[in-house]
Structure formats: structure tokens, C-alpha cells
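Sample entry (124 residues):
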Amino acid sequence: VQLQASGGGLVQTGGSLRLSCAASGRTFSSYRMGWFRQAPGEGREFVASISVRGSSTYYADSVRGRFTISRDNAKNTVYLQMNSLKPEDTAVYYCAADRFTTVQAMSAILPDYWGQGTQVTVSS
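Predicted structure, serialized as C-alpha cells:
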């Protein structure tokens, strides 16, 4: 599966952004999907994940209650709605896909497939 992330940009503290990740191929609905981020000088960090049908989600503590992951299998797209953004959310955001992990386990692995990343910058 090939992934293409979009929707990043510059936003003020407290603002919102919605990231999208479009997937190619007819097997999108068989992949658990996730979002990760990497701030300058930092390692890649898990943000959120979602099950194949969207019925189960999992979030990092740092974003729980502010971010929402969702998917539309008819459109081969996964979304990340980000509200109440903080400067510490500034990072390059990557979508990822994995066929065999669980939603929760995706927080601890490197998924098999990655998108190219989209920059999110939150100004104070």
C-alpha cells in the first residue's frame, strides 16, 4: 500500500487542523492505520491508531482528548482531527499502515508502510 499525507500547515496555539492520508490499492480496509510524528531532534513518536473498520482507536496520552483518528474505507483515507493544538505538537506527521499488528500494539512497533510526512507548526 502507498500512503500520501496532506493537510499540515501553520496554526496558532489553540487552533485546529485536519490531516488526511490517502492510500492506494484495494486492500486498504485490511490495514490497521496509525499516525506518528517526529519533532526536530527527536525520535518518531506514536500519536494514534485505528482498527480496520474504525471501531477501535488508541491514542498517546499526550493527545488523548484533543486528537481524533478516523477512517473512510470507501475513500481509502484515514484522518487525524487535531484540536486545541499546542506548540509541543509541532512536528512532521506521518501516516502508517500495518496489516498484522493490533491497534494498541501499533504504538510500540514500526509499521510496515509509511507516508511521506506533512509538517504541522503550532505558533505560541
